[in-house]
């Protein structure tokens, strides 16, 4: 607690207030209350509050105070006016409560909130930039795929058609058919679907699966791929296992068509 005259000079302080500010009681007597304000721009505010005190008889406020060794503490002050026998204003009496710990927690929380806001804004900006990059990547990927498909259809396929009309033996014609099928696979959504589902199908299994989907028999697939029917049956079984239908009465061709 502290008592001031009408001009704001201390005439009395108790031990608790002196200890909080790091002074002895004798050192504080005669000092002006603004000597203890940490923020000097609070001095103007003090005089405004002093006028309110004279008019209204009391006021409360929270502010920062400077201790004798220069440290900042926070305090809550409740001040009431003291009047003389004739009703004139003669000073004030204030009760001080140290709220430094509470204020430090509040300031730490505000700082943390500000840091989180900055991080959130940064993340939002990064996410926005990432979305733009991903969109651009997808657009570039789509454009590249379109160019590949267009080049195969306009540049490669016509040559293969001309080659097919030339003098080829049965083996060469079979290889040509396989080449055309493989090129069609590359440009089909079915090929991309099988190769992107993490099924771990081998390139040969993807070829076999595509030929099964087209309705080719085991014998015809063996002829086109130049291997035995037993090898094709083995590939069929592996495909069923990897698709998770090896123990089911599911027609493989029907399954492949439905997942095209």
From TrEMBL:
Domain PAC: 59-111
UniProt feature coiled coil, ranges: 109-143
GO biological process, any: regulation of DNA-templated transcription
UniProt GO MF annotations: DNA binding
Gene3D superfamilies according to UniProt: PAS domain, Winged helix-like DNA-binding domain superfamily/Winged helix DNA-binding domain
Domain PAS: 1-41
Location of the HTH luxR-type domain: 194-260
Keyword annotations from UniProtKB, A to Z: Coiled coil, DNA-binding, Transcription, Transcription regulation
Protein name in UniProt: Putative Transcriptional regulator, PAS domain linked with LysR-type HTH domain
